[in-house]
Specification:
Blueprint lengths: L1 E4 L5 E4 L15 E5 L4 E8 L3 E8 L5 E4 L7 E5 L3 E5 L1 H12 L8 H11 L9 H5 L1 H8 L3 H15 L3 H13 L12 E5 L6 H8 L5 H9 L5 E5 L2 E8 L6 E8 H10 L4 H21 L5 H4 L10 E3 L1
Parallel strand pairs: 1-3
Antiparallel strand pairs: 1-2, 2-13, 3-4, 4-5, 5-6, 7-8, 9-12, 10-11, 11-12
Helix pairs in contact: 2-5, 5-6, 5-10, 6-10
C-alpha cells in the first residue's frame, strides 16, 4: 500500500502497483508513506508478527528505524529546521494497513491447550485432531464469544510472555465466566503509576459520579484495596506489582455486577478485580484480533486506481 502525506496533514492513497524510484525493494506486506523533502516512511513485517518502520530519503541507501505508536502523533526532525508532524489519525491508519496484511501474533496450539484445560467440558475440545486445526478451531470459536475472547487473550499474552495475563484469564473463566454475559453496562479499568490517574481518566471517572475529592480520599487510605460507592456503581482502588514496578488499578463495576460477584457469589475484592480485568483483557484481545488479516476492511474499502484518493 502506498500513500502520500498531503500539505493539510491528510493522506492520499496511490496505486499499489505504482513504481517509486529510490525506495528499498522489499516484498509484501509493506506500507509506504511518501513525505515532503523526498523522505519516506516504510513499514514492513519482521518475523511475520512484528511491525518494522524505517524512515529514509529517496535515492539514498540510508535508513533509520523509527517507532509508531497507536493513538499517538509522530514528529520527525529533518535537520535543524525542517520538521514533519504526522497526526495520530494518520499513524493509526498506517499501522492498521500494515496489520491488515499480517497474521496475528502468537501460536495456536499452546493457547488452545490452555483454553481446553479451562473449558474441558466443552464438546468443542474433545477431538484432538480438530483441536490442532487452527483454521477450523477459529471458525468454531467465532460462534462462542467467551471462548473466542479467552483464546485470543491467552494467545497474545503468551506471545508477550505475560503469564500474569494468562492467570487473569484463568481467574475469569474459573470463577466468573457467565457474570458479564447479560450485563448492559461494561466495567471500566484504568491504571496509574502516580497517586491519581491522568486527566482523561479522571474525567472518565467523573462522568461516573466519582469526583477528584473522592479519588484523593481513596488514595489517602493506608490499606488497599479501597472500595467507594456512588449512584453509578462501585470504584475499587487496588495496588499491584512489586516494589520496583508497582502500579495502581482503578476498577469501576456497575451495581448489578458488584451485587452478583460480591453479595451473591461472595468473591473477594482481589478475585473480583482479577476476574474483571481478565474479562476486559478478553474484550481488548478480541478487538485487537480484528485488526489483523482483513485488508479490505482496514483500508476502509479504498481501492487502488489511477486517481489518488484522500483519506482524512
Amino acid at each position: 500500500m502506498i500513500f502520500e502525506l498531503m500539505s493539510k496533514g491528510n493522506l492520499a492513497q496511490l496505486p499499489d502497483d505504482m513504481h517509486v524510484a529510490g525506495v528499498p525493494d522489499v516484498s509484501s506486506p509493506r506500507v509506504l508513506l511518501l513525505l515532503p523533502y523526498n523522505r519516506f516512511i516504510l513499514g514492513t513485517v519482521s518475523l511475520k508478527t512484528y511491525e518494522h518502520w524505517t524512515i529514509g530519503k529517496l535515492g539514498t541507501e540510508e535508513t533509520e528505524e523509527i517507532f509508531l505508536y497507536d493513538d499517538k502523533p509522530k514528529c520527525i526532525s529533518l535537520g535543524d529546521v525542517e520538521k514533519i508532524t504526522i497526526t495520530k489519525e494518520v499513524v493509526d491508519r498506517l499501522k492498521a494497513c500494515l496489520r491488515s496484511q499480517m497474521t496475528p501474533p502468537g501460536e495456536h496450539l499452546p493457547a488452545m491447550l490452555i483454553l481446553r484445560g479451562l473449558l474441558r467440558e466443552d464438546a468443542l475440545f474433545q477431538d484432538e485432531d480438530f483441536l490442532k486445526n487452527e483454521r477450523a478451531m477459529q471458525e468454531s470459536l467465532d460462534k462462542d464469544t467467551t471462548a473466542r475472547m479467552a483464546y485470543w487473550a491467552i494467545r497474545f499474552a503468551l506471545s508477550r510472555n505475560d503469564y500474569e495475563g494468562v492467570s487473569r484469564i484463568k481467574t475469569w473463566l474459573k470463577i466468573a465466566p457467565d457474570v458479564f454475559e447479560e450485563t448492559i453496562q461494561t466495567p471500566r479499568i484504568w491504571f496509574s503509576l502516580m497517586d491519581l490517574p491522568g486527566r482523561k481518566d479522571i474525567e472518565d471517572m467523573e462522568s461516573l459520579a466519582f469526583s477528584v475529592d473522592d479519588l484523593q480520599r481513596m488514595n489517602s487510605q493506608s490499606s488497599r484495596p479501597v472500595v467507594l460507592y456512588s449512584k453509578a456503581g462501585y470504584l475499587i482502588l487496588s495496588d499491584f506489582g512489586s516494589d520496583d514496578a508497582a502500579f495502581r488499578i482503578w476498577l469501576y463495576l456497575p451495581i448489578p455486577l458488584w451485587n452478583e460477584m460480591r453479595e451473591k457469589r461472595k468473591l473477594s475484592i482481589r478475585e473480583i478485580v482479577m476476574a474483571t480485568w481478565g474479562f476486559l483483557d478478553g474484550i481488548a484481545a478480541d478487538l485487537e484480533r480484528s485488526s489483523f488479516g482483513h485488508q479490505a476492511s482496514m483500508t476502509g474499502g479504498i481501492s487502488s486506481g489511477n486517481t489518488a484518493k484522500e483519506i482524512s
